[in-house]
Amino acid sequence: VYLGGFERSRPNAAASNQRRVDADWRNNIYRSPNRVATTDEETIRRHTMSHDIYSLGVVLLELGLFEPLTSMESKFKNKTAAIVHNNLTQLAKDDLLTTMGDMYAEVVLYCLESTPESWLAAHVTEMSYVKEVFAPLEQLSKWT
Prior knowledge:
Layout: H1 25-28, H2 49-65, H3 73-76, H4 81-100, H5 102-112, H6 116-121, H7 126-141
């Protein structure tokens, strides 16, 4: 499995929509917690690559569980962004380990912990992202 097309992604310095997007819980599952506004007047954080990595982690979680996250309504509907994040992380720690193993679960958890603050604190670069996400996924793809 390969992910590509990032050369067509919005440059990091490009404009970012900071207005509230739809509040549908089925869409908010895939959004980084700091990209989910709680009121109509609230502006959300500028979009960064770390938000894309977070969303990738959610998709990888869903694939690894072999079940759409929208089927787990009680874990996500009418929940705060922080609770949604905690529930996703817990699913990765508990259920993903048994279905996909340690390496895959670690990749998903790395993605789910991806925030602009964590990237700054750890001096994360695109190369460290490749090391932490793409390299393990590539290694796993060779086992199939």
